[in-house]
Structure formats: structure tokens, C-alpha cells
Amino acid sequence: MTGPGLDEIEARIVECRLCPRLVAWREDAPLHPPARFAGQTYWARPVPGFGDPKARVLVVGLAPAAHGGNRTGRVFTGDRSGDFMFPALFETGFANQPTSTGLGDGLELRDLFVAAVNRCAPPDNKPTPQERDNCLPYLVAEMRELTNVRVIVCLGAFAWNGAQSALAVLGHEARPRPKFGHQAEASVDQYTLVGSYHPSQQNTFTGKLTHQMLLDVFVRARALAGLTALK
């Protein structure tokens, strides 16, 4: 992050220990790494959002992966979901490179900020309602600072619902709440929500989400945000 407000939020996030189950899970992960990560030093703390503080597009995910963001310190980095997403961000002009392996790898995002509803890796990728609610204020705080955001790309139903809850705290709420779907769009005051299936292996390996489908989501996000179309 850059900017005093976002830096302060990051400092609060990385020190958080509100959810005992998630603290135990994130700190246990480095003790049982997959063979390909054996010997690596894990971040093993909550993972803040990152990207362009002047972003017009916000991407919201579920949570960092136990051996992805929980290892690298950057959400969606170092796991299969990120391996699927970053090429799409690169091809649609939001990233300067198609890969991200960890902090300090040279990745820069343009017009885009990436965050998550939960900041610690949850067992089975399923935070409890209380764990979700404990973490939501961090997303609210980031969104309050990201004053240029006009489009929120929600990766999965959990992110779709979490983004709407965060917007409600900020005084923006649609009733009845719009339902999630891939490429679903919903206007909530000055914001437009765009739904996408999550780039998890469960979706990408089965073809439920293809590379072209994800490209289409980010091309649409550019248009909705009023960003220059790619040639």
C-alpha cells in the first residue's frame, strides 16, 4: 500500500489476532508445507490489500490461501488462483507482468487494488460468520480510503456478499440485495458490482471459469470504470 491512510490500515491488519481458530491455522501452515515450499519462510500473518491507491477498480476475493498469500504476504500470490488471475490482469492492462511469486517481485498494479473479505487463511476456505464479521472492518477501511473506486469485481459469492456488507457500512445499500452470478452486474449508488466465478482450481480445472471468461470480466470492469480500452 501507499499513502498514510492505507499504510495505517495495513499496520492494523498484520497485527490482528481476533480469531483464535484462524491464528492457529495460519501459524500451523508453515509447519506442514507442501514439498515444493519446504524450507521457505512463511508470512503467517493476516494479509493486507495491495495495489494502486488511485484505483478505479477493486477486486475482492475470499481469503488468502494457507500456502499462497499466507506464505508470500500478498493475497492471490503464489497459488493456483493467482497463477490464473494475474495473466488476465496483465492482458487487460491492470498489471505490469503476468505472474506474482511474492513481495518484491516487481509486480505493479495500475488502476486496480486487490483485497479480500477475510485476511487470514481459513480451514477448508470457509470462514465462520463471526470470523467474517471480525475481518469486515478492514475491507470497509480500505474502501473508505480508495475514493476513486467505481467498480468492484467480486470473485465468488462470498466476496459478492462481503462487498455488499462493506458498502452497507459505508452507507451504500441496494434492497433487495442483488444476487451473485458470473458476469452479474449491480449498481449500488456510485459503485457497480461485477460478479465472477472465483479462479479456484475447482472452477478452472473443470472449465467452469475459463481464461477468456475472466478476461471478459476485467475488460468489462475497465469499461464500467471509464478506463481507456486496450487496443
How would you describe the overall organization of this protein?
The protein is an alpha/beta fold and 231 residues long. The protein has a single domain (4-224), classed as Uracil-DNA Glycosylase, subunit E (3-Layer(aba) Sandwich), CATH 3.40.470.10. It has helices at 4-14, 20-28, 69-72, 80-91, 129-145, 157-169, 201-204, 211-224; strands spanning 50-51, 57-61, 112-116, 151-155, 185-188, 191-196. The protein has a 6-stranded mixed beta sheet with strand order 1-3-2-4-6-5, with helices on both faces. The protein is globular. The two termini are 29 Å apart.
**Poorly predicted segments:** none
| CATH domain class | Alpha Beta
> Beta-sheet strand percentage?
5-15%
What is the average of the pLDDT values?
96
The figure for the number of domains is 1
Give the name of the CATH architecture: 3-Layer(aba) Sandwich
Range of helix content: 25-40%
Largest sheet features: 6 strands, mixed
Structural class of the helix and strand makeup?
alpha/beta
Q: CATH topology, anyone?
A: Uracil-DNA Glycosylase, subunit E
Q: How widely separated are the two ends?
A: 29 Å
How many β-strand stretches?
6
Sheet with the most strands: spatial strand order = 1-3-2-4-6-5
Assign an overall shape: globular
Number of helices: 8
SSE pattern, N- to C-terminal: HHEEHHEHEHEEHH
* Assigned CATH superfamily: Uracil-DNA glycosylase-like domain
Radius of gyration: 16 Å
Descriptors:
single chain, 231 residues, alpha/beta, Uracil-DNA Glycosylase, subunit E, 6 strands
